[in-house]
Each structure stands twice: as structure tokens, then as C-alpha cells.
Design brief:
By secondary structure, this protein is mainly alpha-helical. Among the domains are: 181 residues, no CATH class; 86 residues; 57 residues, no CATH class. It is 48% helix and 6% strand. It contains 20 helices and seven strands. A three-stranded antiparallel β-sheet has the order 1-3-2. The protein has a two-stranded antiparallel sheet with strand order 4-5. Helix 2 packs antiparallel against helix 3 and helix 19 packs across helix 20. The N and C termini lie far apart (84 Å).
Length: 506
Amino acid sequence: MSAVVAEAAVVLPGPRASIDDVMVVLPELWVPEASQWLSSSAGRIALEGYSWMQAVHWVAGSGLYQPRRHRSSGLRSFNATTVFIAQLLAELNPCFPGIEYLMRRTGLSERAVEYHLAALRETGLLAYVSRGTRVRGARAQASEFARMIPPEFDRALGIRTALRDEASPAYTRAVTGIEEAGRKLMAKLGKKASRKLRRARPKTSTKASPTGTPGGAGGVVEAPVSAGSRCTPMGGSADASSAAGTTSLPPESKLASGQSESSSRKKSKTKAGGRKSGRRKLNAIGRRYQLGRELTQQVEWLRGCSVPRISWVARHLADAGWTVTEVLAWLHLRGTAEKVYRGSGLLVVLLTNAQNVLDTPAKRADAVAQWRDAQEARRRHDIERVRADRERYEGDWQAPQNRAVHSEVNVAVVQLKGALRPAVQDLPDDSSFGAAAFEVGDQELEDIRAVAQAGLENGDTSLINDTIHACGFEEALRVYGPDLMRRARQLDGFCRSSLTTLAYGA
């Protein structure tokens, strides 16, 4: 190189640095094992999967993760399969994945899945909440992770964060703003995060894929894009050339309605709403696995059992056409043990000869009816028990703690009830007695309604409910009016709802 050329190379400015080049000046991404826990992590928790996937794609394209500088085994870099596993983790809430689940979704080996999870932890994208355990003779427990955003990502994009509460840990800080220079890169990362990756299907042909993506296990490609228009009778693309040189068109009689035969066949396979005519019917193996999965979900002592094992145990019932409701009815008739040591073994004993005893749909329907009646009776019993406990323990009187004193109080209550029973029997049997006893003036009604109104404002409906139980609904409606009665029913409905949580202040 001459001196003039060398001088020009020094004087001439280089190309303008784009926003993507900001990542080069950042330090290397590496989190040691001691800092891979949530309590010791320097990052912040991602509020949802979309923002976390933006950070994942940024790490994948930054090139800052170079694990071979720190260890000689494992991954060489952050690749597309790592992004695909991160996409699977973003769908879990809480992030409690099992190695077997990731192996099934990705087609990778156990060691390969562990390598990719290690890459996500070493880049600061994952942090341990609790680490899984593997004890000989016991079921392995999966690790629970927290999806994290590394601090290098915030510095690269100029994201400003702050703690909303000074007493909160550092990983709970929230985003307060972003610099103008990082908005364009954030938009690019958002487009990447919105595109879904999928596992590549294995190729039946030995020819290489035109995109260069391997079709074996573990291969990952983006979501497929619709191919070119199929305008030839053999399904060839419009961009390809025909070897015959000519294309045979359908006769005009087939196009009388403006549609060809192929399009009419395609439309006949779909419904009027554009959906397919029906789901694929399950075969015998599919019905077995479906029944096994439903049993592990609905039977308390079968939760945590292996679905393939339970499917094999209940295979005879699945082949006979039993539903999970019918199996639950049969288990109710047989009964169960108080303490279950091995759920699959107990299920083998309980399902013995079930298909021979309930061999007709009518018998199975009767068993289901008996099971539903038992469920309803149990529900009513629980309601009465809770109501009795509430009446007993929510009053002003507190039961004594001493057993001897408690027994004496019970004896006294029984004697008192026996002494009051003759007095109650001597009362006149007149239907107008209850109404006459509660006849009050307008001023008394206003006072009663004011007390009930104050109770409703505090969430207490006991006064109105006691009046309904003692005098009937019509008398309570006359005393309190429709407005207070409606509000009382609304408060009782909210208290009985499982979606309502009551918080009592100091």
C-alpha cells in the first residue's frame, strides 16, 4: 500500500454506525453460577413474555455471549434452538418447566436441553427461584425460574428503570423511560419477538433443504409463509416451468359456476365458517391416553402419576368406550383407601372386573346418577356444617378451652333447652301471632332500616338474614324494603363466590 492510500485510509471517515452497532461496545455477557439465583441477580424481572423475548432476541444477535472463554463444554454460542426454548419458557406461567417436557417439544436429548438452559442462565435471562431435586427412588422435581432482563440490555437501549418502593429488592425495578436512540432497535426487537419459531419437520427426501435448514431433530425454523399460487392442474407453482410446454385447462362445463373442480373439492372439506369439517377422530391409543390424562387431572390421589402408566391401567375401559365420568362413578361405588401409597397400584385393584359389572350403557348411567346424587348430598352436608360452625363460632360468646368446663356448659345448655320446650309448646297456634308480634310503628321501622343500612355498609347482612329466617321473606321485605333486600343478596352472593377475596383492615 502506498503512502497516499494509507493517508487516505486514515483521514476518510468510516461508515456511520447504526443502532445495532451500539452492542459492540458493551462488556461480555457472562453470569457466574453464584449469581444465577433471583436473590443475587443483577437484572430485573420481565413483566410478561413479550418484553422478555425482546431481550432474548437482543442477546441472540449481540454476539456478546462467548462461553468457550470460561468453559470447554456446552454450547459454543447462542443459537436459534436456544431462542426456541426461550419461546417455550415464555408461554409458561409460572416458569416451571420439566426436562422431559422440553425434550418432547424440541426433540433434543436431555444433555442438549440442559446446555441451552445453562446458556439462558449464563446470559442473565433466567434466574433460579428454586432448584429441582433428584432423589433416588422419588419423582424428580423440576426447577422454577424467573424470566430476567439483563442490565446490559437496558444500557444498550438506554432504558431507564427505578424502584417504586425503596424497601423492595433491586430485581423488582420498573421501566420509567427509554432514550430516543433505542426506540428504533426496540421496534426491530418487537417484530422479532412477535414472530414464532417452530420445530422443523423431518424431511423424507435426502435432498438438502433450499433454505439450508436441517430437517433433523432439534432443527428450528420460523413460521411458514404461504407458498406461490397453485395454478396448474398438478399443483405446480406459477414460477416453475412445465416440462410438457402446455397446460391443460378444465372444460367450460366445469367452470359454469366460476369455480374449478379442485376448488370445489377444497371447499367441500370446510364448513361455511371457513373451519375444517371436523377434528381428527382418536384411535384406540389416543382414547387411552385421553382417559388417562383426565383421570390424573380429576382424581386427587392420581395427581402426579405418569399418564402413560394410568392409560395402560385403564386401557380396558377406554377400549369399551367408558368416559371419565363413568370411571369416577365406578370409583365412588368401590370406595377408596384413606392413605394411598401408590396411585396406579390402587387403581389396578379398583378397576378390576369393572367392564363386566357395568357392561351396558344403562348400568353406567345409573352409576353416574348415584355418584351425582352422592356429590350433591355431600355438598349440602358441607354447607350445613359450615353454617353450623359459623353460627357457633362467630357469635359474641366464646367456647371455653377447658374440656371439663366445656362439658359442663353443654350439659347446662341441654337442660336449658329442655326447660324452655314446654313454654314454647304452650304458645297459641295462630298464624297471625308472628306478624302481630312484629307489628311496629313508622318510627321503629325507620330505626330498624337505619341499623340494617349501617350493617350493609360494613358488609354485615346478619340482621336481614336473621329476620328472613325468623319471620319469612315477605315480612322481611315489608320491614326493610326491596332496596336493602337486594343489596343484602348481592353481598351474600359476593361472599359465596370463589372469585371474591375479602380483606379486613386494622
